[in-house]
Fold these 2 entries.
Entry 1:
Amino acid sequence: MNAVEPQGASAPAEHGIVISRGLRVYLRTMVPADLQHFAAWVDDPFLERMVGSEFLHSYKHVWDKAPAFYEAILNDPTQVALMIEAYQGWTKPVGVVRLFNIHLLEGYAFLETILTDMRAMKRGFGIEAGKLISYYGVDVLGLRRLEAKVYEYNVLSMNSLRRNGFRQEGVLRQAGYDGERYWDLVIFGILKEEIEAVRRRDKVYLPLDPSEGNGREPS
Amino acid sequence: MGALVIEERQHREWSQPAEALVGLARVRFAGPLTAATASTLRARVRQALVSGEAGLVVDLQAVTALDAAGIAALLDARRSLRAQAGGTLVLRANGIVCRALKESGTISAFALSSGTGM
């Protein structure tokens, strides 16, 4: 019998393992030190309003920012959370992207992209991170469908999803609450064939086009 | 964790359920089987297929973490091996692995061995 130590298991893990590379950003595995970034991000009211991430919410309110959150994520078989690192001029991660509620046998999962640095927005980082993890979902996890939910006022995220080939599939009326009022949640989805079409189209990443959409489509 | 020690255990602790696995190639994984490491499992399965080993017992009793990427690699291994004539994949799982397979809803997809020998 052969005994195999998985690659990376004994390697220094303080910087994480790079999982996927794009032209602007790369995705790497989480390391315990990333929790210090999460601790700052969870207190950002802008992020809370724009993303309303259950991931960050859980770190703050369920785990009370405990270090054990890292192990919980590492051992969660229903999600893959990866840190977004930009190549030049950035000294810390610009966000986190994850596939969650992964149903491996059924082949679907949900996508969440969180850009945490205002300076990182409108640079294509979020689009590319979403693209990279979509490819990862298809190639590595064997997924055939991804879904994403966006607050109706988060036009930037909606346009990012559209640029990655997602289609608006519906609206959950007044399903989101920002502490002051209820908002619609817009549902986006993409199938494996459509992800492959995006991959063929973006074989070489092109400069960002002008915005293709303008918020939600009429229901 | 050297292979020689494991080979020795194989003779001393060979159990009845494990005898049914005679003839299958065996590989043991230790440490986290996650997005950072799952490629090792995939490579080992490819190697098994190239070597004509259609039956594989994967010992995961020393695995310390298992995420969706690790489970996806196991599902892929199962698919690839079962596509071969007489192909099969048997897992020897510890509590961490069993919990992950249950939580991901994939445990019914795998053949699990309760044998202690490897």
Entry 2:
Amino acid sequence: MADFETPTLKEYPVIPKIQEGVMAHSKPFVAKDVFQEPLGFPGELVDNWQQVAYDKMEELTGKYRSLAVFLDSCVKCGACTDKCHYYLGTNDPKNMPVARQDLFRKVYRRKFTFAGKYFPKLVGAVDLTKEVLDDWYSYFHQCSQCRRCSVYCPYGIDTAEISMAAREVMDSIGVGQKYCNEIIGKVFKIGNNLGLPEPALVDTLEGLEEDIEDDTGIKVRLPVDEKGADVLVVTPSADFFAEPHVDGLMGYAKVFHEAGISWTLSSHASEAANFGMFIGSYENMRKLSLRVREAALDLGVKRIIFGECGHAWRVAYSFLNTLAGPFDFLDPKYPVPQHILEFTHDLIQRNAITLDKSANDDMRLTFHDSCNVARASRMGSTPGGQFTIPRDVIKASCNHFFDMPQDTIHDATYCCGGGGGLLTDDLMEIRVKGALPRMEALKHVVDEHGVTHMAAICAICKSQFAKVLPYYGFQMDSIVSVHQLVSNAIVLGNKQ
Amino acid sequence: MPFWTIVYALLFYTATALLVGGLAYKIRQYAKTPAPLKIPTTPAPVTRQGVVLRMFREVAFFESLFRSNKWIWIFGYLFHFGMFLVLARHLRYFTNPVWTWVDLIQPFGLYAAFAMAAGLAGLWARRVLVDRVRYISALSDHLMLALLMAIALTGLAMDYITHTDIVALKAFFLGLMVFNWQPLPEDPLLLVHLGLVATLMIIFPISKLLHAPGVFFSQTRNQVDNPRAEPGQRAHDSRHIAPWAAELEK
């Protein structure tokens, strides 16, 4: 275990007083050239890095309206200052959304605005010195790009956009994060974040088929690369073997089996996650997304469905059509793409699958709204479906469900603390501290309603919670997949 | 022509040109910069009318701010609404004959001025007393509040302490608009008030006051939530693709 203290859980959340610099030491491993070059970035800090960075900033403010507007519109009202889970867990003022944005904004003002150019001290404008760059590297990797701040800002300023831009600038001068960039490289080379090659994937799925048969007596298939299947399922690679993710995958397989709909995974598109978004790289994000299009064309499917993954669903719902469309070769009766929860929810509504709620009676459940799903996507045809559809599926699969306090769920949900490229051991301290608000909300329902388990639909949340829950005195296996609940409750062999 | 009349006439022509020109420049910049991806903060409206309503609620009621922090909301709203009524009341000095609705709101101008000053005082107190807000404040943030407060107080002072010749003042401004200059009354309070207002106009397009046009261009509020290929929409134009991004497809 690392040498930091887990924050204590309080009865009611308290807005902490600022403590300057307490998290300035936090920084993830820097990517070596072998991880930078496949993504098109310089291998190490370039010689004229300051000028290259300024040029990149100018380029980005010309390409992204969000950047131009958000950098100009902040009035320093402070409404966002107590909204970020990383501030609440660390007390470091640079983790307040406005202050995090200011790390970028101060340099933008210095180079590109009248006031910053001629009256820098008046408006707090600064040059991009090595100290400032170090601060950028540290604090833009203490932001999970969860967008909570954008809900509460009077103008909707989204720190995630600034964070993505800052990382893009840093990548362009050779300062990349090893975790994200190495993973993106793995997808290009092998097909998924984990570097699981096709034979290993086939083997893993066969093993899961055996597990299901041993467990239920029924032969449920988990096909891969099957041409002519109706549905291409793209799921986070963690679903292939991590706990509790793999129980979710087995749940999808059972649902497809009962529904009698043919489906397949793809070894070429064996990763729903898209870390290109975290580093703000449109080009890399697009390259990753195109694999889904290629797989759909190659396998001749009619629909694309994404599995339980948070930021993957944001990219799929919000960007896939733009990045990798048009999808005019798919069945026009269905949206492209769909979420596995939309699929299962629809089947439940039509009584096409049977669920026995008592199968989950040993659990008293709550649900964690993952940030990208809550604040950057939709499910179903009405706004807010991303909150009701998962809860409907859970309530159809179990008897005991309790929501956490209102101001910690739905679009006010607290990030798990591990998103946005921070799910790495070299950032353990910020991960643990960032989880504080969610842990306090969880403790509330544990104390009030005897909740024993928390369900989630994001691979990062599931991994983060499995690691962080024990720091706060909870069990690591109290985090479950929603389709794990479905998997426990589904009655197999009822429908033909 | 008296000295101060010439100075203030030139000052106001300059201030107006800088304000209008500066805003036009920035608005043009925001409008022409592409918005390459759909990023509304969800839940978000799925129709354009829904977006218009969302934006209206933000601008008219400060909806997100209300959710976020009641104190900032009350002070911010008092200030903005007060200022809106004050500005509307001031139209009487620039129009002949005075419009009926401007005439009707004259009595509210005084209370609006107090509301404006109270709101500013609350906001400034917060900026000084709350550690998180103090941390993020530059000198310009304090000066902006000082400027607005001084405008409100000098305006109020002209009503309670000295009584400016508003007939002559109106003649001055009407004269400016048709390039037939009339003498400006030389009350020190009036000159300070007008000078501060001109300063506000000049710094508007180079300061955080750009949040005024900016909010309308904020993609997290003004985009319709329809990025995916819904049933029946497979054509190329359901894709929200920016010109520079389309280049990548070539």
